[in-house]
Amino acid sequence: MGGSTIDYPGRALVLRRDKRAFVRARHSAPLWFVGDHYLLAHGTVNNLDRMVFFVDTGGGDIGFTAPRSTFTAAGIEIPPGDGFHPVTVREVTLGSAVRHDVSGLTGAFPDWFESGFGFRIGGLPTHQFFKPYALTFDFTRMQILMGPTS
Length: 150
Prior knowledge:
It is built from two helices and twelve strands; from the N terminus they run βββββββαβββαββ. With 150 residues, the chain is mainly beta. The chain has one domain (3-147): Acid Proteases (Cathepsin D, subunit A, domain 1), CATH 2.40.70. The model has no long low-confidence stretch (mean pLDDT 89).
């Protein structure tokens, strides 16, 4: 398997060297890099078409952030003015994982991220999105695996 697991429910970090190790996963998403460390995968917001997401396990108490254009297209009302505004996103997917009523935050997505890499980044699932899962980054097969606790 050749990856590492952040086991949120089990409150553990598991580092694996054995590339033959088996990881149980209910959900998965193909994974790739841009630059030297940005992880990308496909996902959706509400009923929008599939788009590219940054994947970030940080983010504190939020589960999703995105450019204003994504929130607007997804029918999420943003209060006027600049700054951070909490929102609830009805549905966010990452690969085959689906989460409902995800806590979101507008204004937290850096403007330059949206198209600064030569293609559009539609959003960023983060810490709260991943909390129900043991999240494995399989860099041998270039997949994110999301499953039950190890």
